[in-house]
Amino acid sequence: MLHRLTLPVTAFQQNCSLIWCSDTNEAALIDPGGDIPVLMQAVESRGLKLVALWLTHAHIDHAGATGTLAREHNLPIVGPHPGDQFWIDGLPQQSSMFGFPKAEPFAPTRWLHEGDTVQLGGHTLQVLHCPGHTPGHVVFYSPELKHAFVGDVLFAGSIGRTDFPGGNHAELIAAIKGKLLPLGDDVTFTPGHGPESTLGEERRHNPYL
């Protein structure tokens, strides 16, 4: 069975997700933005084997601890889409600008594209390329859990910012309406910040949609 736990990290209270397969005890961290001791305590206290880091996009609050974790634990970095290469290149500058610990540079082990899948134990998640907040933003969707890890594309009652370099409001709305909402009203999602919601709730009541 696939399980998930939300771990808010850094001063930005970014929702890092720990997901794991209870059959194999293999685990992945989605968007390890910082607070490595908090993340590793969550992994180790459950007796899990961390096997991968998955990134929705490369903003500092989502990717800041990625390079360090990958080096210290010899982990593959999966994602985001190549459109975020310039954000990865700029992580050291981002960390100093926002007062984060210095982010170690990294190169993704595997870039992700629309239609790709990622595996964890015996479980498969679908990859949706959802640009707009950043050009290379991806979403991880588990049909089994009917749950999506959407990063900063969509929030409860709001949507991702598009005023950063590479942001595009029209692309963001198109991705939400064309790729996320069709997954179904009963699908829950973990946003990059704040509380969870359902796609149906956002389709009906989100003022930006």
UniProtKB/TrEMBL annotation:
Q: InterPro entries per the record? A: MBL_Glyoxalase_II, Metallo-B-lactamas, RibonucZ/Hydroxyglut_hydro
> Which residue intervals are annotated with compositional bias (Basic and acidic residues) in the record?
200-209
Write the protein's name: Metallo-beta-lactamase domain-containing protein
Key words of the record: Hydrolase, Metal-binding, Zinc
Signal peptide range in chain numbering: none
Q: Which cofactor does it need?
A: Zn(2+)
Q: Does the keyword Hydrolase apply?
A: yes
Q: Where is this region: Disordered?
A: 187-209
At the top level of its lineage, which domain of life is listed? Answer: Bacteria
